[in-house]
Amino acid sequence: MTKVITYGTFDLFHEGHYRLLQRAKALGDYLIVGVTTESYDKTRGKLGVIDPILTRIENVKKTGFADEVIIEEVSGQKFSDIKKYDIDIFTVGSDWTGTFDYLRDYCQVVYLERTKNISSTMLREQRQHIQRIGIIGTGRIANRFIPEAKLVSGVSTQGVYNPNFESARQFAEKWEIEPYENMERFFGAVDIVYIASPHQTHYAYIKSALEHGKHVLCEKPLVLRKEQAEEVFGYAKEHGLILFEGIKTSYCPGFQKLLGIACSGMIGSVRNVEACFTKLEDSGSRELTDTMYGGSFIELGSYIMLPILKMMGVNYESISFDSFNGENGLDLFTRVTLRYRTGLATATCGLGVKSEGRLLISGTNGYIVADAPWWKTTYFEVHYEDAAKVDKYSETFLGDGLRYEISDMLALINRTATNDFKLTRGESIALAEIMEKFMKENRK
Ligand code: C2G
């Protein structure tokens, strides 16, 4: 008996999938089809899959070609499946030609001609209104955003606005998008506004975008006052608009996994969180010269406060700041200490002092440790009283990691997801309040 195996997502099942399975079955006597899980698709950068896994499996079964359906959960599984199921032929569409040649040592590899002019991506785009994104700001982060947005199906970057039109024009030319000089025309041309302008301008841009009926994705720190955060979130909610604070860590799969483990009881109850992020900056950089909105805490505070607020909550009993300031008064190094009813937390950041930069979560049964750059979580360990027992976890973090927040935001806009648990409004408001408290003490 000749055994054949093939794999796929099979989202929005179409003729291309049907013909692939039909020919795969014809290659032998017994066909096994591996259907990918959502988390595996996410880790391989396939975002925006619409059908849930049960629907995708059902659609494969309905063709009648599959003798057995299995789940594909991790990369590297193909090799072990070939051994496990004693496979003679591995097959996949010709869009993958060459990719799976390494399996030739274990079985025959056949690339079947891909069916032309049909794909899940095409169908997804036809089903959805493509959300047009307009960018405000043309700095470093805006340049990183565009290639990331290209990887999320269902969005397209339409144009850019900058009060300095020459900057907008140059940026637009580089990325082949539209530059806008007039704000009204800019808002008129887009569905989502991505704000990547200097911190102090966020509040006014958020308000203005929401008032024009646009969804907003805003770089951290969203705003620098609690009252402003409450106002913009309240307005967005009332008007059915999505407002997202872009702290990339909160949306990336590795950090999600870490939180899941920290809150699962594996290390018992969390009693202490220590988060540190330092980055040496050039003394002439905006971060070290803008005496009102520069400094280490405004720049990095969102990252280091995030795991604390996620794990210990927003209801701390006390918070205090201690900073070492440079000659111009900006904090080069800041330590924040929090006390909770259930434990303690410390957050440390620096732009002029280098430190180890790790995340440590201590519980009543053990601790989790993630080394720098834990804010782009790819690896962490769980340790226990018995020092010989260590559980190791890894996860991918693709590119600059902005694709995760863009795709989560899109899911909320398209109502394929219904909550914002990865970074809640309450957490964003608490962050704004902490920024406000810090500024009151540090910026005299
Ligand atoms: N396919 C095809 N013709 C199309 C579209 C897809 O022949 N017009 C084939 C693909 O080449 C693949 C299968 O249908 O063999 C499933 O396609 P997808 O759902 O897009 O899954 P894919 O990402 O290609 O998964 O581990 C997963 C596999 O590597 C392939």
Protein architecture, described:
The protein is α/β, with parallel strands linked by helices and 444 residues long. The protein is built from 16 helices and 19 strands. The strands form three sheets. It has an eight-stranded mixed β-sheet, covered by helices on one side. A hairpin with an 8-residue loop joins strand 17 (366-370) and strand 18 (379-384). Helix 9 (202-211) packs parallel to helix 10, helix 10 packs antiparallel against helix 16 (425-442) and helix 14 (296-312) crosses helix 16 (425-442). The model has no long low-confidence stretch (mean pLDDT 95). The chain binds [cytidine-5'-phosphate] glycerylphosphoric acid ester (C2G). Residues 7-11, 16-17, 20, 36, 72, 92-93, 95-96, 114-115, 118-120 line the site of [cytidine-5'-phosphate] glycerylphosphoric acid ester.
Present as ligands are: [cytidine-5'-phosphate] glycerylphosphoric acid ester
How many β-strand runs? Answer: 19
- Quaternary arrangement of the chains shown? single chain
Strand order of the largest sheet: 13-14-15-12-16-17-18-19
The mean pLDDT is: 95
What are the segments in which pLDDT stays under 50 over at least 5 consecutive residues? none
Radius of gyration using CA atoms only: 25 Å
Counted by DSSP, the helix tally is 16
Overall body shape: globular
Please state the structural category: alpha/beta
Main β-sheet, in a few words?
8 strands, mixed
How much of the residues is beta strand, in percent? 25-35%
Secondary structure: helix percent: 25-40%
End-to-end Cα distance: 80 Å
